[in-house]
Amino acid sequence: MVATAPRRHGTDADRTAQGGFTLIELMVTIAVMALLALAALPFTRNWVDGTREIRARSSLIEAVGQARALAMRNPYGLPTTDATGTPLATAAVLYDGETAMLCVVQRDHDRQWTASSCPLDAAGDADVPWRAQITSPGDLALAADGAAFRCAAYDSRGRTQLAPDLGRACTTAATITVTAGQQGGIDAPLL
């Protein structure tokens, strides 16, 4: 008869039969995953800001197209100049930075602006031929010649005009710079 030694627990033979990870292995894996997530965060933020800029630029370009088309159509047959010979703006794009609303307004047959601000609800839509809200504006900024963009007015030839009677400073700049977050900004043409 051959004598066998008593079996001890915790030997190498027992370890190979067990499955799973040790606590240290799990902690190292979680730490590496956390570092990768932290490294990816700035790239994600820049990607989101870039997307916000592109969406805002697209909305602004659409608003400009609507305003210029309306101005050139000149539905009320307004003269091209006022009594002093100054070119008369017949339609305008308005931007409200507080609500991130873009809208197009026009002059009526009495040469009065149908609206001087962008309505937030459908009640004011009768006076506004087109409006849109820029989604998730956050820290979005629209600027023309270094100043905040509020208005761009167009005459019946589609050219930008000042329109001082609109009650806000309209720009005659050729482009608007749209900036979100730390992005460098992209330009949207006004002509």
Characterise the protein shown here.
The chain has 191 residues and is α+β, with helices and mostly antiparallel strands. It has one domain: minor pseudopilin epsh fold (3-Layer(bab) Sandwich), CATH 3.55.40. It is 30% helix and 21% strand. It has two helices and nine strands. The protein has helices spanning 12-17, 23-73, and strands spanning 89-96, 101-106, 130-133, 141-144, 147-148, 151-155, 160-161, 175-179, 186-189. The strands form two sheets. Strands 3-2-1-6-7 form a five-stranded antiparallel β-sheet, with helices on one face. The chain has a four-stranded antiparallel β-sheet with strand order 5-4-8-9, with helices on one face. Strand 6 and strand 7 (160-161) form a beta hairpin. It is rod-shaped.
Mind telling me the CATH class?
Alpha Beta
- Please list the strands of the largest sheet in the order they lie side by side: 3-2-1-6-7
Order of helices and strands: HHEEEEEEEEE
What does the radius of gyration come to? 31 Å
CATH hierarchy: architecture: 3-Layer(bab) Sandwich
Tell me roughly what share of residues is in helical segments.
Answer: 25-40%
Number of helices: 2
Q: How many domains comprise the coordinates?
A: 1
The oligomeric state is single chain
Shape: rod-shaped
> How much β-strand is present in the residues?
15-25%
Q: Compute the number of strand runs.
A: 9
Span of the ends, CA to CA: 104 Å
State the low-pLDDT regions, or none. none
- Main beta sheet: 5 strands, antiparallel
Structural class: alpha+beta
| Mean pLDDT over the full residue set | 85
CATH fold field value: minor pseudopilin epsh fold
